[in-house]
Design brief:
Shape: elongated
Radius of gyration: 19 Å
CATH superfamily of the largest domain: NIF3 (NGG1p interacting factor 3)-like
Oligomer: single chain
Number of strands: 14
Helix content: 25-40%
CATH architecture of the largest domain: 3-Layer(aba) Sandwich
CATH topology of the largest domain: Udp-n-acetylmuramoylalanyl-d-glutamate--2,6- Diaminopimelate Ligase, Chain: A, domain 1
Number of helices: 10
Strand content: 15-25%
Distance between the termini: 39 Å
CATH class of the largest domain: Alpha Beta
């Protein structure tokens, strides 16, 4: 049986609590499509490639981490924006996007799911969260060296990673914040991390890692955020009796 779009909207909002976050763009239903939803596709970014793949899957709704609209962007519907919107509107597909709420969910979010994928046990008490809006996660995974943990991350994510560290130093306390969270490194250091895992690295973080003795692993923005959307999508699909498919559009970033 199909679910109403309003029921899917309510289920996602109840789960992810977007009103609790100060974010960079609107969370929730970004493009309204048909009222009845039978099939939900999840993905990382609302790219044209994902939308086309969702059309091929005959999806009624798409759930992503990176939506179409961001604070401060050009508001004109031209070029790539026109192409994406045209496809969604022509096929009457709903687009749902949750940015920080999808990072932060304690069980199904990007950080929690990446930790699970890497075998990091998140601390259940106050030590388990750090940083602005408590977006950073902290847990434990003992490794004989930062280099060994880096190799493990590379193997689990299927891509090369960047390690800045004393490679032979053992690590135990692991901080995670997926995507472009290099600005959380100092908070991770203050929280007692031995190693920080995120998607990207900027020039200052290499110096902080060397000078503070805390390892830094940059494993790719997209690669670190592949796990939250399908986990949330599968959860709400099961709740509402929908079909769910995760489509991973390759991105080297």
């Amino acid at each position: 049986m199909p679910a109403q779009r309003t029921a899917l909207t309510d289920a996602l909002n109840d789960l992810l609590q977007p009103a609790q976050f100060k974010d960079y763009g609107p969370n929730g239903l970004q493009v309204e499509g048909r009222a009845e939803v039978r099939k939900l596709v999840s993905g990382v970014t609302a790219s044209r490639a994902l939308i086309e793949a969702a059309i091929a899957e005959k999806a009624d709704a798409i759930l992503v981490h990176h939506g179409l609209f961001w604070r401060g962007q050009d508001g004109r519907v031209t070029g790539w924006m026109k192409q994406r919107l045209s496809l969604l509107l022509a096929h009457d597909i709903n687009l749902f996007a949750y940015h920080l709420p999808l990072d932060a969910h304690p069980e199904l979010g990007n950080n929690a799911q990446l930790a699970r994928h890497l075998g990091v046990a998140i601390y259940p008490d106050a030590r388990g969260r750090f940083g602005e809006q408590a977006l950073g996660f902290m847990g434990e995974r003992r490794s004989d060296s930062a280099a060994a943990l880096s190799e493990h991350v590379s193997e689990r994510l299927g891509r090369a990673v960047t390690l800045v560290a004393e490679p032979d130093r053992p690590v135990q306390h692991v901080a995670l914040c997926t995507g472009g969270a290099q600005g959380y490194f100092e908070a991770a250091i203050a929280a007692g991390a031995d190693v920080f895992i995120t998607g990207e690295i900027s020039e200052p973080q290499a110096h902080y890692a060397r000078e503070c003795g805390v390892a830094y692993i940059a494993c790719g923005h997209h690669a670190s955020e592949r796990y939250g959307a399908p986990a949330v999508g599968a959860h709400v699909a099961a709740q509402l009796g929908l079909e769910h498919v995760f489509i991973d559009i390759h991105n080297p970033a």
